[in-house]
Amino acid sequence: MSGPHDPPQGQPAAQPEASTEAVNRRAEVLPPNTTQASLLAAAAGVPKIRMRGVKKAFAGKVVLDGVDLEVPAQSSMVILGGSGSGKSVTIKSILGLVEPDEGVIEIDGVDVLRLPRRDREALGDRIGMLFQNGALFDSLPVWENVCFKLLAQKRIGRAQARDRAAEVLAQVGLAASVGDLSPSELSGGMQKRVALARAIAARPDIIFFDEPTTGLDPIMGAVIDGLIVDCVKKLGATAVSITHDMASARRIGDQAAMIYKGRIVWEGAAATLGHSGNAMVDQFANGEREGPIQMELRR
Ligand SMILES: Nc1ncnc2c1ncn2[C@@H]1O[C@H](COP(=O)(O)OP(=O)(O)OP(=O)(O)O)[C@@H](O)[C@H]1O
Ligand SMILES: [Mg+2]
Question: What is the pTM of this model?
Answer without folding.
Answer: 0.82
